[in-house]
């Protein structure tokens, strides 16, 4: 029998992970180990963990698990370095899925796939002056922290109406300006270190109600190493926001209905089909260019005014709220533990475990 590992930065709260441990037990895992990256001893091949067996969590010093599902969100540099060591091929620990890297790495990889035409114009922020020039060229840009998550830290820079050489600075629903180019560059310099952010052409994805929206496609691996489109939904922000993340108060809508009200039934059918085509093919394409395995992806798509589809972002640890909102609690519970089923499928097939980092 095999042992499942769950790696996270929140290992001191084991009850939060009981749902996954119970699913692992039903699937035939002998035990589930919950641990923080700092608790892994690669030299001695052991881990200090909470061990779930027989319906209870207990602290144990254990041998390394047979396969690990990474559920952590790591922000501290030391933690990130530890995670990279643990998930490297040299560690010998197989994981269900591996990392995409930061936004610039992802951008460069996307350009190597057959879906490059869907990638909006993006540049690495090497200097504040470069961002100012791009804002002047495109009329508006989004500056996104290279390692940012959940829409945090994003700034929109746009030309001020009637003042072509002045700019507005927007974060969430707060707008400052107009700013002269020199003042804008100084503000960017104080906010973003060189190469710590990307600059992306702003896409007009405002809904008729004044918020912004995107389309999230949640795709997950199934037993058999096939990708499943679990859910696809529109996420719409409140008025004045610059990102549509559900955790920031956005709402969830069915894609066909939402797009249909904006573009009509026929055009909506074409747009939604194009989004599905990307969701169906991009995961395999990314695995090919990265040369590594992924277990689930959140693919964020934009529909610019006029109906052009673009790829905004891809996330390796996507939330499941859209499933609960559109398909209910049973489907939500199923989506939560699908990676655990995939972990068991992998652990039973040792020949598949090498498709890692």
Give the low-pLDDT segments: none
- Report the biggest beta sheet as strand number plus sense, adding barrel if it closes: 6 strands, mixed
Q: So how many helices?
A: 8
User: Which structural class best describes the helix and strand composition?
Assistant: alpha+beta
- The tally of beta strands, per DSSP, is 17
Into which percent range does the helicity of residues fall?
Answer: 25-40%
Radius of gyration computed on alpha carbons: 22 Å
SSE order, as H and E?
Answer: EHEEEEEHHEHEEEEHEEEEHHEEH
- Proportion of strand residues: 25-35%
Question: What report would you give on this structure?
Answer:
The chain is globular and about 70 Å long. The protein is built from eight helices and 17 strands. The two termini are 25 Å apart. Helix 1 (18-27) links the parallel strand 1 and strand 2 (31-35). The chain is an alpha+beta fold and 357 residues long. The protein is 31% helix and 30% strand. Strands 1, 2, 3, 4, 5 and 6 form a six-stranded mixed β-sheet that branches. A six-stranded antiparallel β-sheet has the order 7-12-8-9-10-11, with helices on both faces.
List keywords for this structure.
357 residues, alpha+beta, six-stranded mixed β-sheet, six-stranded antiparallel β-sheet, 8 helices, 17 strands, globular
What is the topology?
Layout: E1 3-7, H1 18-27, E2 31-35, E3 40-41, E4 46-53, E5 56-63, E6 67-70, H2 77-86, H3 103-110, E7 122-124, H4 128-138, E8 140-145, E9 155-160, E10 163-171, E11 174-179, H5 181-191, E12 197-201, E13 213-222, E14 226-236, E15 251-254, H6 255-263, H7 265-290, E16 296-303, E17 309-315, H8 321-347
Parallel strand pairs: 1-2, 1-6
Antiparallel strand pairs: 2-4, 3-4, 4-5, 7-12, 8-9, 8-12, 9-10, 10-11, 13-14, 13-16, 14-15, 16-17
Helix pairs in contact: 1-8, 4-5, 6-7
């Amino acid at each position: 029998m095999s042992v499942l590992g769950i790696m996270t930065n929140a290992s001191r709260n084991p009850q939060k992970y009981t749902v996954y441990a119970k699913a692992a037990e039903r699937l035939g895992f002998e035990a589930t180990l919950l641990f923080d990256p700092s608790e892994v001893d690669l030299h001695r091949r052991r881990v200090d963990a909470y061990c779930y067996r027989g319906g209870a969590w207990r602290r144990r010093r254990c041998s390394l698990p047979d396969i690990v599902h990474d559920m952590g969100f790591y922000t501290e540099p030391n933690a990130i370095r530890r995670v990279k060591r643990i998930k490297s091929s040299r560690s010998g620990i197989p994981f269900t899925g591996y990392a995409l890297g930061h936004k610039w790495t992802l951008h460069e990889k996307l350009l190597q796939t057959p879906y490059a035409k869907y990638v909006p114009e993006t540049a690495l922020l090497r200097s504040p002056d470069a961002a100012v020039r791009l804002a002047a060229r495109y009329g508006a840009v989004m500056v996104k922290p290279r390692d940012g998550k959940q829409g945090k830290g994003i700034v929109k820079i746009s030309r001020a109406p009637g003042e072509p050489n002045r700019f507005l600075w927007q974060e969430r629903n707060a707008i400052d300006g107009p700013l002269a180019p020199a003042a804008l560059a100084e503000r960017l310099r104080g906010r973003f270190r060189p190469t710590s952010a990307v600059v992306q052409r702003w896409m007009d994805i405002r809904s008729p109600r004044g918020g912004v929206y995107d389309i999230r496609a949640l795709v997950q691996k199934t037993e058999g190493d096939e990708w499943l489109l679990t859910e696809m939904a529109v996420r719409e922000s409140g008025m004045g926001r610059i990102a549509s993340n559900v955790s920031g108060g956005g709402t969830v809508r069915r894609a066909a209905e939402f797009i249909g009200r904006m573009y009509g039934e026929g055009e909506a059918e074409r747009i939604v089909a194009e989004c599905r085509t990307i969701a169906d093919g991009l995961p395999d394409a990314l695995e090919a260019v990265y040369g590594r395995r992924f277990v689930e992806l959140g693919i964020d798509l934009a529909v610019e005014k006029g109906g052009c589809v673009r790829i905004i972002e891809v996330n390796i640890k996507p939330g499941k709220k859209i499933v609960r909102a559109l398909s209910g609690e049973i489907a939500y519970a199923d989506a939560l533990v699908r990676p655990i089923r995939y972990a068991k499928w992998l652990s039973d097939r040792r020949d598949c475990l090498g498709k890692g980092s």
